Amino acid sequence: TPALWAVQDADTTIYLFGTVHMLKPDVRWFEGDVKAAFDRSDTLVIEVAQGDPAKLATTFARLATNQGDPPASQALTPQQSARYAAALKTYHIPAEAMERVDPWLIAINLSVAPLLQLGYQQDLGADKLLEAAATQSGKQVIGLESAEEQLGIFDALPRKVQIDYLNATLEGLPEAEKEFTTLINNWSRGRADALAKQMNDSLKDTPELAKPLLLDRNVSWAAWIAQRMEQPGTVFIAVGAGHLAGKGSVIALLAQKRLIVNRIGKHR
To answer: Which letter does DSSP use for residue 175 in this model?
Structure first.
């Protein structure tokens, strides 16, 4: 019973559903209120709609490749460097390849690696399954951002912030399994406030990340929703669950715009 909300007026309904981008095969969620809301919708809106794979690969290579800065490993203290080398070895990530990419990509790789070892799969992420279901049923699929815009947020981070992001990721690796298990439990039971607190706590050591990755995007998405409410139809919006609860969330921003957001169904 993941959290689900709706914004409605006389001729428009917009459902808001928070996703998790990696899941295990045994997690059941696409049923009940969520499935019913999806089936009623004409359009699916996700963070980034799937585009041309070749174009995406070119964009990714351009934005993620280190453009002349020293390798990330050279910006670390001896203690950080030892932790970094150990993590690369543990998760079988080639150190040579990481010398050629930006620190933000290394941090993302290290965030994902322990979850892959635990059996979580990116192709089972809620957004991926929703996009596949929408395509199969002939629904329109819209991306709130292009892949270039989303990757560009990371690429635009100052180098110091990227290094801080990398070190925060390294420091959090020993707790990765516990933290993600708690996140999945909160998500699957619809505990939106607990999930928001956990997500916010994870960014407290890197506040420079919270604004571009979370808050600024929330502002943009809330504005999109407010504008979309002026058109008739039924829309199912699925974005990362951390964007839909807590201070500065999309839902809080919609309330500031005098749009009434109602929670649907029960949570445990």
So the answer is: G
